[in-house]
Amino acid sequence: MENYRPLLSHEIAQLKAQGCQSGEWEKIFIASEQSIPFISNAVFSGKIIIGTFSNEHVFSGGVKKHSGIYNAHIHNCTIESNCYINNIHQYIANYHIRKNAIIENVDSIYCDPESQFGNGVIVSPLNEGGGREIPIYNKLSAQVAFILCKYRKDEELIKRLQKIIQNYCQSQSSNIGTIEQDCIITNSGQLSNVYLQENTLINGASLINNCTINTASFIGQDVIIKDSIIGKGSTISNGAIITKCFIGECCTISYQFSAENSLFFSNSEALHGEACNVFAGPFTVTHHKSTLLIAGQYSFFNAGSGANQSNHMYRLGPIHQGILERGCKMGSDAYILWPAKIGAFTLIAGRHYQHSDTSNFPFSYLIESNRQSHLIPGINLKSIGTYRDGFKWPQRDKRDLSDSNDFIHFSLFNPYTIQKIKKGKDLLKQHLTKNENKGHYCLDGTIISDTSAQKGISLYKQSITCYLGEILSQKLINTEIANFSQLKKILFTPEQTDHPTWIDTFGLICSTEKLDQILTKIKSKQVDAIETIQEAFNELFKSYNMDEWKYCLSLLHEEKLLNTSSSFTKDNLENFLSLIQIEATNYYNSILIDSEKEFTDEMKISYDNDFEMVRRKLEHYPTIKHLKEKLNSINTNVPSLIKKIRELPME
After folding, report:
1. pLDDT by residue (tens digit) across 458-470?
2. Please, are residues 383 and 389 in contact by the beta-carbon 8 Å criterion?
3. Which three-class secondary structure state does DSSP give residue 1?
4. Which of 150, 203, 591, 639 is in the most buried spot, having the most CB atoms within 10 Å?
């Protein structure tokens, strides 16, 4: 920390000669006389602290400018060493500007008394009519937002969480704003009540008011941001307008996109269109001018051109809402009339007015025919596009995982989706039995044909076998097993009777039982701060693999894929492993067959004999390489595992 002292009389005289003015020279403190030559045409008022200006900054094109204060009105500020401040049209007031910051060609920067810098702003996601309000704050995670939004029936919990958040927001209140070290602000309009974390770049923004902007973020040309929090590593650019929003880590909002009363979590991208009262979980993507997201919940979502929803029935106002579970896609010009609830990894095409609930039928197609919604259960399981999604999301995760707010599980198959698949399989069987030979039946706003139901049952059954087989195989491969008795202890434990309900908390997959334990601790004040809530979710995240194994073990026995303990033999396990190899090979080969559709003659229309030069061969695609590696792994590991089991001594 530098030592600061009052100006000496000859230093004041030199500053005056350099065009500087002040009615309170006695309130100006400097670290070194070395800084005096690099302060010119500046007006000072209030208490001023100035560090040492000893270096040059290199700008675009190789232009060098010496640190210092030029052509600016500075009021009640601390300016640390080697900052460069030039051409401030109005003033900078009530700010602590840390070392190496650059501020040039800016209208004004100021902080009002008791600003909370966007912390505590009330946002109304998911329902435009209100009732799910969330007080945003700088460390808000997708999981805490999920609880605040979706657990409104537990008034005690919500009040306790709101109090914890209120305490945090009050702790952020200050009369002085902060621009952390190495920030750059250039060619911008007004910044008021804004906290900038280190390495933030602002270039050409029109207006930023009452915000926290986190580390290594970029705010670009013509952007307007009000009453919002911007997560670290995010980009807001090209005329985007953000009002009362939380933008999470590594998000991109650009090209005139407008959003209000919305939450976007990690790695989301929103371009051109608009969002109103949106609850957008990780990897929510919308790229088109004609697309509207309104009063909906989304995650791992992709919106096609012209995708739209309606939340206003012209009765009691815009009070309706909808849920698209993780991995859904809306095709071009797709439309849904809220309320509706669509199962995970569903492809939605056409226009839907029937208020469908397909939440128990993941990996489906929801299509329109004759103004009716038709559901094809499980068909999306065979899509190379679905497999590609599961492969690409971890590759596109731009977060620093050592210090991230959100907890995310990426697997397409996990206890939550498998739980839904199992429920869907059982429902299809029930309805086929009840509606025998009718050709189709209606279920929760959709029409399902008997043929589609039968195929859905087969696909769902296959996916359960593949999932359980993969988890079981990895467990046995990675565990030292001395003999058959030890193997039986692994496969037959008290946990095999445990059947928890699983939930997707905006990325984090967990059992409701374990989540409830955290919520109980919050209500009882055992967890009583933002940091301890985050720690609790981190522990839940780290326990996932063990919890998943226990769930899979219970499901293996529930599905009768293994014999009982008393009748269990090596042959029983070998038969199941052989079944796994057959089913998994068939499943992944069906996906490969789907990928080949992209290379038919029909797909080569318009390429003028340069198809392979442009598109490359199928085997060059990373997704296809990964899929083939998966197949090879199955066909190598399963026989090896069967051999290992055969050779186990009985005791």
Report:
1. 999 999 999 999 9
2. no
3. coil
4. 591
